[in-house]
Design brief:
Elements: E1 15-21, E2 27-34, E3 39-46, E4 53-57, E5 71-77, E6 84-90, E7 97-102, E8 106-108, E9 123-124, E10 130-137, E11 147-153, E12 163-165, E13 168-176, E14 179-185, E15 192-197, E16 203-204, E17 211-217, E18 224-229, E19 233-237, E20 246-252, E21 257-261, E22 267-273, E23 276-282
Antiparallel strand pairs: 1-2, 2-3, 3-4, 5-6, 6-7, 8-10, 9-10, 10-11, 11-12, 13-14, 14-15, 15-16, 17-18, 19-20, 21-22, 22-23
Length: about 300
């Protein structure tokens, strides 16, 4: 059976998110969020639990680690909407170095920009030379393509050509030095995984009815873990004289909605399918035969 060890005891004062394991497998770095003050800080906790140690303040992302574990990268936000900054620091959190800053209509995706607190952990390439970070651009002319993928040289901060997206990235990971996996929300569609090669068009990796968000890859980069979140709805039968509500179309992440019934008691409704939305007909058995306006 799976065992669970509490490394940070429950509290009503803080929320915790965006965990990252240090390369020596001794500690877990966690973003600690204070809902009342909206203060976010990065803390480090022993792997099996113990008192936390403060690593950085005013953070807006979890931690990203390079393969050699010598450094760590994270995003910080500035007060009064003055921008977001990508920092690189030593493995113990000391000697922070500003690598890149975004201001005005551009930002790094982070916990201060969106509800749901995307981890937004910076991703290091396998060779340790590049750091990928999700970005956002809110200029009016970018209203349909506000998402961005930025790759920065880990030493100089030089920027590769920005990839512009129809949607927003919640997290990134390198599958190889020339391939990025991104979890992306396109408008109102569920978050899905996409592969972005250095050359050529992106490839959709998942086609799920639920959100498949966040990305953390195994050491060999052949498998990843994600948070799968469903919004489930059903279609029910409701007696007009009162009584129990029963399901006609089972609850599912397909989100069946806007139902209509015909004279033969067949149901017509809309629902989500892997490639978008569809109109469907169901021979669900309903009590009585109703006409199009619901009369006997």
């Amino acid at each position: 059976s799976i065992s669970h060890v509490v490394i940070l005891p429950p509290t009503d004062k803080y929320r915790y998110g965006a965990p990252s394991v240090t390369p020596d497998n001794s500690y877990v770095d966690v973003v600690r969020f204070q809902p009342r003050t909206r203060e976010r800080s990065l803390i480090r906790v022993p792997f099996l639990g113990g008192p936390p140690r403060l690593i950085a303040e005013v953070v807006s992302s979890g931690v990203g680690w390079p393969p050699d574990g010598r450094y760590m990268a994270f995003v910080k936000f500035q007060e009064q909407g003055l921008g977001t900054r990508l920092f690189v620091a030593d493995a113990d959190g000391r000697n922070e170095r500003l690598l890149y800053e975004r201001k005005g209509d551009t930002d790094f995706i982070g916990m201060m920009l969106f509800t749901g607190f995307p981890p937004a952990r910076p991703a290091w390439s396998p060779d340790g030379r590049w750091i990928a970070v999700a970005g956002a651009n809110i200029k009016p002319e970018r209203s349909d393509s506000g998402g961005e993928i930025l790759e920065l040289n880990a030493e100089s901060g030089d920027l590769r050509p920005i990839k512009y997206l129809d949607g927003f990235v919640t997290e990134l990971a390198y599958r190889s030095d020339d391939e990025l996996v991104a979890s992306i929300r396109h408008r109102n569609d569920p978050v899905q995984w996409w592969l972005y090669p250095r050359e050529g068009p992106p490839v959709q990796l998942t086609r799920d009815l639920s959100d498949v968000a966040d990305i953390q890859l195994t050491a060999d980069r052949t498998t990843g873990v994600a948070t799968r979140t469903s919004r489930r709805t059903s279609i029910v039968m409701v007696p007009t004289a009162g009584g129990a509500v029963t399901e006609a179309i089972a609850e599912s992440p397909a989100e069946p909605y806007e139902v209509k019934v015909d004279q033969a008691a067949a149901l017509f409704y809309s629902a989500r399918v892997p490639d978008g939305f569809a109109a469907l007909r169901s021979e669900a058995v309903l009590p009585g035969h109703l006409d199009a306006e619901g009369a006997q």
